[in-house]
Amino acid sequence: MCSLLCLTLAQDLPLVFSSFSSARAYQHCVNILKFGPRVSESQGLIHTQKYIIGELAKYGWKVHEQKFKSSTPIGGITFTNLIAYYAPDTKTDFQLANKIISCHYESKYLPKSKKPFLGANDSAASIGVMLEMAQLLSKKAPILAKSTNFVFFDGEEAFGSRMHYKNNDHKDGLYGSSYFAKAYQLHFEKQPTYVINLDLIGDSNYKVLLSKTADAKLKETALNLYKGNQKQDYSFNLSKAKLNILDDHIPLHQAGAKVLNIIGDFQKMSYWHHHEDDINNISATQLKAIGVFTLDLLHHL
Ligand SMILES: [Zn+2]
């Protein structure tokens, strides 16, 4: 009886995911951009932290704040990763789940930019998608919510002009994900833990890429789900990245997690790391398509 019910619920889940609200995900993006640049340690980032924590609390999620200090080319900086876990009752304590959806939530430090750099696609769009996913899971799929963390990394961006990273000994960039990966390396080595990282996913004019560095089965599952539903919901153009992409999934892969990075084809985006990366690049339809696709993938892990 129970197993039949569980099976029915499992089969119905993708239908539930179609109630993902493109308008709410888009509005989160608009709200976050109003805080201005979100450089690490800035007032804009502190406002963004409060916004993320406040929104998640409305849906029954709590946030474990992981603070650490690191040296950077512009001096010592205190970074804060936000790790959200579903805790509808007050008794639930933080523990790392075996399914993780992540993105970076700070914006790049660009002091010479003509206008303030807001990073709408890089990466407020991902934050908006993740907040709506958290809302939907808590309401419609609480069992899946309990086995999922939403992780918001600080310090993905390099402070210098180019990211410089080597074997988890970070030089510039990937600060938050490197710290998170080191802190939980033992967990990743002992238990299969899936990490799906989202970056620059809000613009419908560009291909969406699946990273070269990825867990083979996770990547294959993603491609099969896409092929099976391309015409209905997954209106974006998905392909395999041909080149290695340095992003927050790399330190996690090195620590033993099963990773996949889902990222817009940023090298084709003329506004990438320029002040033109504003709300005009964001498509609400694209946010929903990526959100539903990611939930579908999460459900199949
Ligand atoms: Zn960036």
Low-confidence parts lasting 5 or more residues at pLDDT below 50? Answer: 1-11
**Helix amount:** 40-55%
**What is the CATH T-level topology?**
Aminopeptidase
Q: Output the strand order for the largest sheet.
A: 1-2-4-3-5-8-6-7
Give a description of the structure:
Helices cover 40% and strands 18% of the residues. It has 301 residues and is of the alpha/beta class. The chain has one domain (31-299): Aminopeptidase (3-Layer(aba) Sandwich), CATH 3.40.630.10. Strand 1 (61-72) and strand 2 form a beta hairpin. Helix 2 (22-33) packs across helix 4 (120-140), helix 2 (22-33) crosses helix 10 (284-299) and helix 8 (216-229) packs across helix 10 (284-299). It is globular. The relative contact order is 0.18. Mean pLDDT is 92; it is low at 1-11. Bound molecules: zinc ion. The site of zinc ion has 4 residues, from loops.
What are its keywords?
301 residues; alpha/beta; Aminopeptidase; 8-stranded mixed beta sheet; 8 strands; 40% helix; globular; binds zinc ion
Question: What secondary-structure arrangement, pairings included, does this model have?
Answer:
Layout: H1 2-17, H2 22-33, H3 43-58, E1 61-72, E2 75-86, E3 99-104, H4 120-140, H5 142-146, E4 148-153, H6 175-183, H7 185-190, E5 194-199, E6 208-210, H8 216-229, E7 238-240, H9 249-254, E8 258-264, H10 284-299
Parallel strand pairs: 3-4, 3-5, 5-8, 6-7
Antiparallel strand pairs: 1-2, 2-4, 6-8
Helix pairs in contact: 1-10, 2-4, 2-10, 3-4, 4-10, 8-10
The chain binds zinc ion (ZN).
Zinc ion (ZN) is lined by residues 108, 122, 157, 273.
